[in-house]
Amino acid sequence: MDHTWTESFYQETDAAKRFDILKENTGKEKTPADVYREELWIARYGKRRPKNDAFVGALMELKYLAEGSSLDPGGKKKRQAAKVIASLGMAGAETKEREYQEILLAELKNVFLKFIEVSRGGRGFTSLVFGMGQLSEEGVVKKIAEQISTIAFQTPHMLRMDREFAVLQEAALQVFRQEYPNREHFLKK
Question: Can you tell which superkingdom this protein's organism belongs to (predicted)?
């Protein structure tokens, strides 16, 4: 993977800035990597200027799947999880080229960066009971770790789909280590 512009592309969490970086660095003659990035971009933001982030929405869907009962009569939750896998570009990723797998991992890491950024900045997320008081930095880290544990580890465990979510779990783990070194013990894997 080309590390000159892609590093800033995958560290940037503002969708509009990411769009500009992508357009600026994608030529008329597209490489396979350019095609993969564009494919994931369209899956995440759509074809036009980014408005909604479907990948963050998919993370929230995984969170909601875990919050209900652990029972799954009829396999409804498992079917919803399979839709999430497809929407995140993970369906069959293990059989695709290594370059696609690397780009997918980088994009999923960016999704978790965005998730952490939104969580840290949200008053409702960082406040104590009914908005009175603020959580300490350590409290915020624990709460983010709890959310990521639910999304990336608890939901796949509950549905017995760890293999299908392996790349998402790896992305979550790498980003948490990057953002909160020496605090991995807060994650429930």
Answer: Bacteria
